[in-house]
Design a protein that fits this description.
single chain, alpha+beta, Dna Ligase, domain 1, D-amino Acid Aminotransferase, Chain A, domain 1, 2 domains, 6-stranded antiparallel sheet, 12 strands, 33% helix, 29% strand
Length: 245
């Protein structure tokens, strides 16, 4: 089993740079979910151990109540029925987190986030690939296994920001955040790969969505330029050889 989301979140909270990019995240209870919904119009309820966007529940404040979604299923309920509706989408076993929702920027009418593929083939962490993950129509998660598709990150950011300096500034911040995340998590865990997922708002603010210690590389097979994919696979082979020697 991979490293739990809450463990990684708490480790990153100790880092002065990363702390300001972490959305409010708590262990789930119905009381905490309700309290968070008073501050934010959207919350996400996520399995502590989970990947591929599976089992994520979104709750939106709507007129006269709430909309609860999991995958393509949705329910509209009033305040009195909210807890029961959330519970109906949760697995009987397993811990969940509740996290404030983010207003992600869009590309071609769908939300997107950034996946940064970090690897440590030698002594230093390096960025092997960057891509935007664009959600499938009507989806609220961007994961490849939920229909998300990859687009060159530079292209998506250039569409979002007309100013090239803003694009470069955002890419530099993404690079700094990603390296800090990899080094911070690596202090306590023996990892050599990390999938960094960052949310970007319209105004350019960057949020840490996830740090995946077992990242998949399928997203990079969708990019026309295969440079990142070749680098990822080359580093994987190098790391396997080091393990065998």
């Amino acid at each position: 089993m991979g490293i739990g989301k809450m463990k990684k979140h708490r480790e990153m909270l100790q880092h002065s740079v990363l702390r300001g990019h972490l959305p409010e995240t708590l262990w789930f209870t119905h009381a905490r979910a309700l309290r968070m919904l008073r501050s934010y119009s959207t919350i996400f309820i996520k399995p502590n151990h989970g990947s591929g966007g599976n089992g994520i529940i979104r709750v939106n404040r709507v007129r006269n109540g709430y909309e609860v979604r999991c995958g393509l299923r949705r329910t509209r309920v009033g305040s009195a029925s909210l807890s029961k509706a959330i519970q109906s989408y949760m697995r009987p076993s397993g811990q969940y987190l509740v996290q404030r929702g983010l207003r992600l920027a869009q590309y071609n009418g769908s939300i997107f986030d950034a996946r940064i593929y970090m690897q440590k083939p030698n002594k230093r962490w390096e960025i092997s690939g960057m891509a935007a993950r664009v959600a499938a129509p009507r989806r609220f998660v961007t994961n490849y296994h939920k229909g998300g598709h990859g687009v060159q990150l530079n292209r998506v950011l250039s569409r979002l920001f007309a100013d090239r300096r803003k694009v470069n500034h955002t890419l530099n911040k993404i690079t700094t955040i990603s390296h800090n995340m990899a080094r911070t998590i690596n202090k306590r865990h023996a990892i050599r790969e990390l999938g960094v997922d960052l949310g970007i708002e319209k105004n350019g603010r960057i949020w840490i969505i996830e740090a995946n210690s077992r990242p998949g590389h399928k997203l990079f097979t969708q990019l026309p330029d295969k440079t990142s994919l070749r680098r990822i696979m080359k580093n994987k082979r190098l790391m396997r050889r080091r393990l065998m020697n």
